[in-house]
């Protein structure tokens, strides 16, 4: 897309991904292609995907063959993601669960926070913008903006204090607190961005 002139991509903080190891990577999700940009930066990564994508006509083959973690069961999802992270594989999660609304954020689901507190792993936030808004939820793939779209990924350094390993029975409260920290970070990026 860059070569064809349809898209410009700018990445800041890429050095923060060099030694991700078993980190949890969280990002807002303003466009359909932000995940592709992240995977391009971290080839050895796993991701949580919605169950509906496993059955989606156009992407099911790629999703099934990828070995990505399907979020069809909360307990299995947390266990699978935790094993990946503890084994040294970074995992990408979009805490909103689906693409962000134009210019905003959806309510964050607690899965990312629960996984962070199950593992005590580093958390690397990626704030993403797409200007003009392109490939948003509900927008047709062929609705190309009149000017070249610009995808920006701002990769922060690992946040070592955003999670702490918490026993299973005490994770609910901590997950709420961690989830609030996650969302507050992205809200601040929107205000300052």
Task: Please explain how this structure is put together.
The structure is a single chain. By secondary structure, this protein is α/β, with parallel strands linked by helices. The protein has one domain (7-192). Helices cover 33% and strands 18% of the residues. It has helices spanning 34-41, 51-54, 60-66, 74-86, 111-119, 171-192, and strands at residues 7-12, 24-27, 46-49, 69-70, 91-93, 123-131, 149-155. Strands 1-7-6-2-5-3-4 form a seven-stranded mixed beta sheet, with helices on both faces. Helix 4 (74-86) crosses helix 5 and helix 5 (111-119) packs across helix 6 (171-192). The radius of gyration is 16 Å and the shape is globular. The two termini are 24 Å apart. The model has no long low-confidence stretch (mean pLDDT 84).
Assembly state of the chains shown: single chain
Spatial extent as radius of gyration: 16 Å
**Total domain modules:** 1
What is the element string, with H for helices and E for strands? EEHEHHEHEHEEH
Structural class by secondary-structure content: alpha/beta
Overall shape? globular
SS strand fraction: 15-25%
- As residue ranges, the low-confidence spans are none
Q: So how many helices?
A: 6
Sketch the major β-sheet.
7 strands, mixed
**Strands, total number:** 7
Helix content: 25-40%
Q: Taking all residues together, what is the mean pLDDT?
A: 84
Distance between the termini: 24 Å
Strand order of the largest sheet: 1-7-6-2-5-3-4
